[in-house]
Design goal:
- The structure is a homodimer of 182-residue chains.
- By secondary structure, the first copy, chain A, is α+β, with helices and mostly antiparallel strands.
- Chain A has two helices and eleven strands, in the order E-E-E-E-E-E-E-H-E-E-E-H-E.
- Chain A folds into two domains: 29 residues, Single Sheet (Ubiquitin Ligase Nedd4, Chain: W); 136 residues, Nucleoside Triphosphate Pyrophosphohydrolase.
- Chains A, B: It holds the Pfam family NUDIX.
């Protein structure tokens, strides 16, 4: 942030405003305070029979690695709507959202992942423009060394733990502190 | 947004960038795309014995109404850290986070509420600078007509439903669609 997006002034300072306790970009010309907050990444692990659908990323970061379909929540969307959209965009598939399985904090990059489990409609899927490949995996086939992000590995571990115990538990994790669900 | 925060140009357009499907503010001078995404509001309902702690707001909006301590998640924070901070700021109290009870979508204002249940440490609390008053309420004492936001009413209903059933269910709601938990 080099200029005030309200008045165009370069007279910006990064300081704690009056009656606040966090530093913000403050415009000393028009007095606008520019708040910056974490973003949500929403996604869904599509399940079909005993298999789960992953997509191999065609974009940076983590190009070529396998991922739970996920992406930034957009303005005007509910978290579940965003998750359905990401599955549509990355796997050319429809899901029926089942339950929220993961809340995963990535404080260092100002992100929070919210990932659902859903049923892959009709077992049908394709390859979205951001994917190189989509594939259904049994638990023993998961390419653990080629999973794109720790959040996705966490959600996969959480899902298989839930399936084993017959529960629909929400798992709360973070990078790098949390041990994966067993 | 009137000016590009990167280069200061007023040559901004709100349009769908190449290889995207959502309209964004795009700078036609330096080509920066300015993404805008929903914000998270994090909070915690502090519980002490058979009572819950609410704070009466000393700030707009909803000045004078009762609320579950909540506020915007800040950069660098986990969702639970943000909830603990909000309880500290609004109720001058410490909580031990117990579980996530609510994910509440407010698509129209680009917000998602994430609220926990926690134990009020030692039953001690005060009045933070953003509160007029703090008070412990039994279920039958809750001032339902003077609750600040639908998200807080939803979380209170969810908590009393969970306490009745002995479960720690996550409830997913939204405004205005969702019926409150019973």
């Amino acid at each position: 942030m080099n200029f005030c997006s309200h008045c165009g002034s370069a007279d910006l300072q990064f300081r704690i405003p009056d009656q606040d306790n966090q530093p913000r970009f403050v415009c000393d010309n028009c007095h606008t305070i520019h708040y910056q907050n974490p973003k949500m990444v929403t996604g869904c692990l599509p399940v079909w029979e005993d298999r789960v659908l992953l997509c191999r990323r065609a974009i940076a970061p983590a190009y070529g690695l396998w991922n739970v379909p996920s992406g930034y929540l957009e303005n005007g969307e509910s978290v579940a709507d965003g998750a359905r959209r990401e599955v549509r965009e990355e796997a050319a598939a429809e899901v029926t959202i089942d339950y929220l399985i993961t809340v995963y904090d990535l404080e260092k990059v100002n992100q929070v992942y919210l990932q659902f489990v859903g049923e892959l409609a009709g077992g049908r899927y394709g390859i979205g423009p951001e994917s190189l490949e989509s594939r259904l995996f049994r638990e023993e086939e998961i390419p653990w060394k080629d999973i794109a992000f720790t959040s996705s590995a966490y959600t996969l571990r959480a899902y298989f733990a839930n399936r084993k115990s017959g529960e629909q538990l929400l798992h709360r994790g973070s990078f790098p502190e949390t041990a994966p669900p067993q």
